[in-house]
Amino acid sequence: MKRKTVRQAFLRSIPVMAGYLVLGIGFGVLMHNAGYGLPWSLAMSLLIYAGSMQYVGVGLLSGGAAVITAILTTVMVNARHLFYSISMIRLYRDAGRYKPYLIFALTDETYSLLCGGEAPDVENAALYRFLVSLFNHSYWVIGSVLGSLLGSVLPFSTKGIEFSMTALFLASFAEQWGRKENRIPAAAGLIGTLLSLLVFGPERFLIPAMLLITLVLTLLRGSLGGKGVES
To answer: pTM of the full predicted structure?
Structure first.
C-alpha cells in the first residue's frame, strides 16, 4: 500500500519536476555568477526553499544588503504564504509527524497540487502529501546543485533568467484555470491583482492584492459551496 502511495505521489509531482529542475538550474547559475559556489546554493535550497525569494536573495547577497532589508524583503515577497496556507489547516491538522515538514515545504506549486484536498489513498493521505512535498523539494535542490555545477564549467548569460519564476506561476494559473471546475477563485485572483497593481503600483501591490483576494473569497465562500478559500 505504501509503495502505491509513493508511486501516486511521484506521478502527481512530475509536472512540478519539469519546472523545478529548470528553475533550480537557473538559480544555481545565478548564484555561481554572483560569486557563491555549490555549498551556498545547496544550503539555500535545503534550508530556505523559497523559490522566487531565493532569486531575489541572490541580489541581496551580492549587493551586501542589511539584515533588516533582507527580512522586510522576505516578508513582502512571501506574504502570499500567510494567506493561502490558511486553507491548508484542515488538511494538515492530522498530519502527525509529517506536519512540521509539510508546513515548511508548502510552496506555490505544492499548494497547487494539494489544495483540492484529494488524496488517492485516504488511509495514507498524510504520507501522500508529505511525499509530494518531499519530491518537489528534492527537484528544487537537485536543480540548484546542477545549476551551480554547470555555472562553474560553462559560460552562461543570466540576462532575463529571473523571469522563469513568473513563467512558472503563469503555468500553474493556466493549469488551475483549465480544470473548469470552479473558475471564480482564479478570476478573483487575476482581477484583484490587476486592480491592486493599477492602484498601488508594481512596488506595493502584493499585500493589498492578497488582502483583496482573501476578502472576496471569504465573502463568496457560501456561494462556492464552502470551497472558496481552498480553491
So the answer is: 0.72
Cα–Cα distances (Å) from 219 to 30, 147, 199, 231, in that order, read 42, 44, 22, 14
Give SS3 for 37: coil
Q: Which three cell numbers stand for residue 115?
A: 489544495
pLDDT tens-place string over residues 153-212: 877 666 666 566 666 667 667 766 776 566 777 788 788 889 988 998 887 776 788 778
- In degrees, to the nearest 5, what angle opens at C-alpha 95 toward C-alphas 92 and 100? 80
Q: Is 169 exposed, middle or buried (0-12, 13-18, 19+ CB in 10 A)?
A: middle
The structural domains of the chain, with segments of one domain joined by +, span: 2-160, 180-231
Nearest Cα residue to 34 out of 19, 5, 9, 54: 54
| DSSP secondary structure of 130-164 | HHHHHHHHHHHHHHHHHHHHHHHHS----TTTTHH
